[in-house]
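Prompt: I keep going back and forth on a fold encoding question. Comparing notes only helps if you start from a blank page. Show me how you would write down a chain together with its backbone fold. Please set it down just below, with no commentary around it:
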Amino acid sequence: MINLNTRTSIVALAAITIAAFAFKAGNKDGWQSKFVTQNADGSLTYHPDDRGNTIPDFSRVGYHEQDTAIPDVAVVKTLEAPKDGSNARQLIQDAINEVAQRQPDAKGFRGAILLKKGVYKIADSLYIHTGGIVLRGEGDAKNGTVLVAADKGQRTLINVVGKKGIRVEGEKIKITDDFVPTGAKSFNVASTAGLKVGDRIILFRPSPENWIHDLKMDQIQERQGTKQWKPGEYDLQFERNINKIEGNKIFMDNPVVMEMDAKYGGGAIYKYSTPGRINEVGVEDIRFESEYTSDTDEDHGWIAVGYSNIENGWVRNVSSYYFGYACVSTEGGSCNITVNNCKCLDQKSQITGGRRYSFNNVGQLNLFMNCHAEEGRHDYVTGARVCGPNVFYNSTAKNEHADIGPHHRWASGTLFDNIVSDGQINVQDRQYMGSGHGWAGVTQVVWNCTAKSAVVQKPWVSGTNYCIGFHGKKADGAFKGRMDGEWEGQNKDGLTPASLYMAQFKARHLK
């Protein structure tokens, strides 16, 4: 279920209200996309292109696919802030380690650690390596629970970290269809022997030499440090579950988010497990601050909350001030994480590459919603080879210094839905930017967003990108000669549904 918080910003709340009204009542003066239309009963009809591609279903992202409400986990340990302002790092870490020794309940929770109102200086980092632990404060206001990244050192303040790695369980099974379109949830495989409903599978998409050549990513304009893309470096592993099996046909819970074409190596599936991952971890109701010496200081707190190798977790109702990189960064191996009602404010760093990625996602099946950022560069952003679906929904950015969107090296399957920014939203070929960013992404859907300007381009092969109901200027890309993605309804009011994510989520629950 979707949970809204009373501290949601006025802008975010207004957008949600508009979206909800449009969903329930329809918009008599509105219009619908040619790619997906909403029926009278709230169901959706997807309209394929001439290759069978559709906009995919983004509804199963976030904590337990948003089918389970984020719980209010019972407090088992309470801490008071040190009265003398001393380093509280060991105090909190000892509490985390103590709760980690508790036996989890039937739902996997060991308990919440409540940090009472006050200031907790932390001259290092905190680590959660065990599932079922919630770190909770008493609010993210100045008079709430304040965790301060004290002293020098570029670091992540709260590290929620499991053990890395996907364990392959069995042989790869080849997909036998010559072409599997974007949006598909089923396809034929060589054999379903040994597979059953409920199995976790990797949908594997290779990156052969001819694909990289046709994408022109072995032809990136050279400058010092440019790295051409190499075969095998862009193999993608999408995490899925088997919903149904009919003969040799597999049905999955989440869709294909980029074309899988036999001429580019097709694809395969294999069973997998993630024994090192942790789960059911939350960070909530805390204000994070970093000490700093100047507006361009870089030797201080860098990320407030970092998640890696964890699934089914959350960060909610937190704010960060004066960090150099991010409020929340969901790194590799983070899966089904919800980041809700968080703020990244007044960042301190140089304003250049590798800084100020306010809400950064490298994982998959993650949901960022009702967030706000100020003075960032890439406020809602994905990294390299990010496997979707992922969603950034109903969030705002102010005084942006760069752009929102996939940042580099082929993110696939991201929805930017009702994002409002005074900067740019870009999906393009970034060519030699960085060390050879190249095509930033495919199946990137910009839905009912507002910004100063946008660039949404179509890669040379393997799909397209969408810009539907965008309010703002259509800008030229950084490099000439690229094709436009699918643009529809620019500066046109009344797009229905107002939110694609909300409509897909509600349509799923009509069944």
